[in-house]
């Protein structure tokens, strides 16, 4: 199974930063990659909040896979949160 070398929290934070900065989202920068590199850490707490919300899969997600594995994977990310 392929895995990402970039931690989930960082990937989510980068998406959030991109949505705020990029012309493809709510921002005005047509080439926002540098700005995202500089700003993604400002969105880390939002990324953790999203993952915290996703701890419990919805019914469709539960039908697609193992709920215990999902919970374990999300918990592993949340356990790395500073101050957790």
Can you walk me through this structure?
There is one protein chain. With 84 residues, the chain is an all-alpha fold. α1 packs across α2 and α1 packs across α3 (44-53). The longest helix has 14 residues, at 8-21. It has helices at 8-21, 33-39, 44-53, 59-64, 67-79. The chain is elongated and about 40 Å long.
List keywords for this structure.
mainly alpha; 84 residues
Beta content comes to: under 5%
Computed structural class: mainly alpha
Q: Tell me the number of strands.
A: 0
What is the global morphology? elongated
**What is the succession of H and E elements?**
HHHHH
SS element count, helices:
5
Mind sketching the topology for me?
Blueprint: H1 8-21, H2 33-39, H3 44-53, H4 59-64, H5 67-79
Helix pairs in contact: 1-2, 1-3
Q: Outline of this structure?
A:
The protein is mainly α. Helix content is 60%, strand content 0%.
